[in-house]
Protein backbone atom coordinates (compact mmCIF):
# COMPACT_ATOMS: atom_id res chain seq x y z
CA UNK A 1 0.00 0.00 0.00
CA UNK A 2 2.83 2.34 0.68
CA UNK A 3 4.12 1.78 -2.87
CA UNK A 4 0.70 2.73 -4.15
CA UNK A 5 0.70 5.96 -2.10
CA UNK A 6 4.23 6.83 -3.23
CA UNK A 7 3.28 6.31 -6.89
CA UNK A 8 0.07 8.28 -6.53
CA UNK A 9 1.89 11.01 -4.65
CA UNK A 10 4.56 11.22 -7.35
CA UNK A 11 1.90 11.38 -10.04
CA UNK A 12 0.03 14.13 -8.21
CA UNK A 13 3.24 16.10 -7.67
CA UNK A 14 4.22 15.67 -11.29
CA UNK A 15 0.70 16.68 -12.39
CA UNK A 16 0.78 19.76 -10.16
CA UNK A 17 4.20 20.78 -11.48
CA UNK A 18 3.05 20.21 -15.07
CA UNK A 19 -0.15 22.18 -14.46
CA UNK A 20 1.81 25.03 -12.82
CA UNK A 21 4.30 25.15 -15.68
CA UNK A 22 1.51 25.14 -18.25
CA UNK A 23 -0.32 27.97 -16.48
CA UNK A 24 2.90 29.90 -16.05
CA UNK A 25 3.81 29.64 -19.72
CA UNK A 26 0.30 30.42 -20.89
CA UNK A 27 0.29 33.59 -18.78
CA UNK A 28 3.47 34.78 -20.50
CA UNK A 29 2.09 34.27 -23.99
CA UNK A 30 -1.52 35.34 -23.76
CA UNK A 31 -1.52 37.02 -27.16
CA UNK A 32 0.83 37.27 -30.09
CA UNK A 33 3.28 40.19 -30.07
CA UNK A 34 1.98 43.39 -31.66
CA UNK A 35 4.28 45.26 -34.00
CA UNK A 36 1.54 47.57 -35.27
CA UNK A 37 2.18 50.45 -32.87
CA UNK A 38 5.81 50.74 -33.93
CA UNK A 39 4.85 50.61 -37.57
CA UNK A 40 2.07 53.15 -37.06
CA UNK A 41 4.51 55.49 -35.34
CA UNK A 42 7.02 55.16 -38.16
CA UNK A 43 4.33 55.71 -40.77
CA UNK A 44 3.07 58.83 -38.98
CA UNK A 45 6.61 60.15 -38.63
CA UNK A 46 7.29 59.47 -42.33
CA UNK A 47 4.10 61.38 -43.25
CA UNK A 48 5.20 64.34 -41.09
CA UNK A 49 8.64 64.40 -42.69
CA UNK A 50 7.17 64.17 -46.21
CA UNK A 51 4.67 66.96 -45.49
CA UNK A 52 7.39 69.23 -44.09
CA UNK A 53 9.68 68.50 -47.06
CA UNK A 54 6.89 69.50 -49.44
CA UNK A 55 6.12 72.58 -47.32
CA UNK A 56 9.76 73.69 -47.32
CA UNK A 57 10.08 73.30 -51.09
CA UNK A 58 6.94 75.37 -51.58
CA UNK A 59 8.11 77.99 -49.06
CA UNK A 60 11.52 78.23 -50.74
CA UNK A 61 9.82 79.07 -54.05
CA UNK A 62 7.81 81.77 -52.27
CA UNK A 63 10.97 83.19 -50.67
CA UNK A 64 12.58 83.35 -54.10
CA UNK A 65 9.61 85.41 -55.31
CA UNK A 66 10.06 87.64 -52.26
CA UNK A 67 13.74 88.21 -53.13
CA UNK A 68 12.79 89.09 -56.71
CA UNK A 69 10.14 91.49 -55.43
CA UNK A 70 12.71 93.21 -53.20
CA UNK A 71 15.23 93.46 -56.04
CA UNK A 72 12.76 94.79 -58.62
CA UNK A 73 10.43 96.66 -56.21
CA UNK A 74 7.54 94.72 -57.74
CA UNK A 75 4.27 94.79 -55.75
CA UNK A 76 2.82 91.94 -57.84
CA UNK A 77 5.64 89.61 -56.81
CA UNK A 78 5.12 90.53 -53.16
CA UNK A 79 1.48 89.49 -53.51
CA UNK A 80 2.43 86.32 -55.40
CA UNK A 81 4.90 85.40 -52.67
CA UNK A 82 2.29 85.96 -49.96
CA UNK A 83 -0.30 83.85 -51.77
CA UNK A 84 2.20 81.06 -52.34
CA UNK A 85 3.09 80.89 -48.64
CA UNK A 86 -0.62 80.85 -47.79
CA UNK A 87 -1.03 77.88 -50.16
CA UNK A 88 1.98 76.12 -48.62
CA UNK A 89 0.43 76.51 -45.17
CA UNK A 90 -3.04 75.36 -46.24
CA UNK A 91 -1.60 72.29 -48.02
CA UNK A 92 0.22 71.26 -44.85
CA UNK A 93 -2.89 69.79 -43.24
CA UNK A 94 -4.02 69.42 -39.63
CA UNK A 95 -2.01 66.25 -38.92
CA UNK A 96 1.28 68.13 -38.95
CA UNK A 97 0.09 71.56 -37.83
CA UNK A 98 2.06 71.30 -34.58
CA UNK A 99 5.51 70.76 -36.05
CA UNK A 100 8.11 73.38 -37.04
CA UNK A 101 5.93 76.09 -35.54
CA UNK A 102 8.64 78.76 -35.32
CA UNK A 103 9.67 78.22 -38.93
CA UNK A 104 6.06 78.38 -40.11
CA UNK A 105 5.36 81.48 -38.00
CA UNK A 106 8.20 83.37 -39.70
CA UNK A 107 6.93 82.37 -43.14
CA UNK A 108 3.34 83.33 -42.34
CA UNK A 109 4.48 86.65 -40.87
CA UNK A 110 6.03 87.32 -44.26
CA UNK A 111 2.58 86.97 -45.86
CA UNK A 112 1.33 89.83 -43.69
CA UNK A 113 4.27 92.04 -44.65
CA UNK A 114 4.10 91.10 -48.33
CA UNK A 115 0.38 91.83 -48.58
CA UNK A 116 1.12 95.24 -47.06
CA UNK A 117 4.07 95.87 -49.41
CA UNK A 118 1.95 94.72 -52.35
CA UNK A 119 -0.78 97.23 -51.48
CA UNK A 120 -3.38 94.72 -50.24
CA UNK A 121 -4.05 96.18 -46.78
CA UNK A 122 -7.20 94.13 -46.24
CA UNK A 123 -5.33 90.91 -47.09
CA UNK A 124 -2.62 91.90 -44.60
CA UNK A 125 -5.25 92.47 -41.88
CA UNK A 126 -6.88 89.10 -42.58
CA UNK A 127 -3.54 87.28 -42.44
CA UNK A 128 -2.58 89.06 -39.22
CA UNK A 129 -5.82 87.78 -37.67
CA UNK A 130 -5.11 84.27 -39.00
CA UNK A 131 -1.54 84.47 -37.68
CA UNK A 132 -2.76 85.33 -34.17
CA UNK A 133 -5.44 82.62 -34.27
CA UNK A 134 -3.36 79.81 -35.78
CA UNK A 135 -0.29 80.32 -33.63
CA UNK A 136 -2.23 80.64 -30.37
CA UNK A 137 -1.04 83.98 -29.05
CA UNK A 138 2.63 83.43 -29.92
CA UNK A 139 4.55 86.38 -31.32
CA UNK A 140 7.74 87.10 -33.21
CA UNK A 141 10.18 89.84 -32.27
CA UNK A 142 12.30 92.06 -34.47
CA UNK A 143 16.00 92.57 -33.77
CA UNK A 144 15.25 95.69 -31.68
CA UNK A 145 12.83 93.70 -29.45
CA UNK A 146 9.63 95.15 -30.88
CA UNK A 147 6.62 92.89 -31.32
CA UNK A 148 5.65 91.75 -34.81
CA UNK A 149 1.93 91.56 -33.97
CA UNK A 150 1.77 94.96 -32.30
CA UNK A 151 3.83 96.60 -35.05
CA UNK A 152 1.52 95.21 -37.71
CA UNK A 153 -1.56 96.26 -35.70
CA UNK A 154 -0.25 99.82 -35.63
CA UNK A 155 0.70 99.86 -39.33
CA UNK A 156 -2.61 98.30 -40.39
CA UNK A 157 -4.73 100.64 -38.26
CA UNK A 158 -6.05 97.89 -36.00
CA UNK A 159 -5.38 99.94 -32.85
CA UNK A 160 -8.04 102.45 -31.87
CA UNK A 161 -7.41 105.82 -33.53
CA UNK A 162 -9.10 107.73 -30.71
CA UNK A 163 -7.07 106.34 -27.85
CA UNK A 164 -4.77 108.85 -26.13
CA UNK A 165 -1.81 106.52 -25.75
CA UNK A 166 -2.33 104.91 -29.13
CA UNK A 167 1.33 104.01 -29.60
CA UNK A 168 2.77 104.49 -26.13
CA UNK A 169 1.72 101.10 -24.78
CA UNK A 170 2.58 99.23 -27.98
CA UNK A 171 5.83 97.27 -28.20
CA UNK A 172 6.73 99.00 -31.46
CA UNK A 173 9.98 100.45 -32.76
CA UNK A 174 10.51 104.02 -31.47
CA UNK A 175 11.32 105.38 -34.94
CA UNK A 176 8.05 103.97 -36.25
CA UNK A 177 6.13 105.52 -33.34
CA UNK A 178 7.75 108.90 -34.00
CA UNK A 179 6.98 108.77 -37.71
CA UNK A 180 3.35 107.76 -37.14
CA UNK A 181 2.91 110.56 -34.58
CA UNK A 182 4.43 113.04 -37.07
CA UNK A 183 2.02 111.91 -39.80
CA UNK A 184 -0.92 112.11 -37.39
CA UNK A 185 0.10 115.61 -36.32
CA UNK A 186 0.28 116.89 -39.91
CA UNK A 187 -3.04 115.24 -40.79
CA UNK A 188 -4.71 117.30 -38.07
CA UNK A 189 -2.85 120.62 -38.48
From TrEMBL:
Key words, A-Z: Signal
Leader peptide range in chain numbering: 1-27
Domain of life, source organism: Bacteria
The protein's name: Uncharacterized protein
Lineage: Bacteria, Pseudomonadati, Pseudomonadota, Alphaproteobacteria, Rhodospirillales
Amino acid sequence: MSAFIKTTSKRLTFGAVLLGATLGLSACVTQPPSFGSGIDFREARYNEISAMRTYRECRDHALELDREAQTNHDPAKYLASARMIEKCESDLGPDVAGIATDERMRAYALTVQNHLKGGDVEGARENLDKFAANFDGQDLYFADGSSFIQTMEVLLGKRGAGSIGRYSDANVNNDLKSELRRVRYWERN
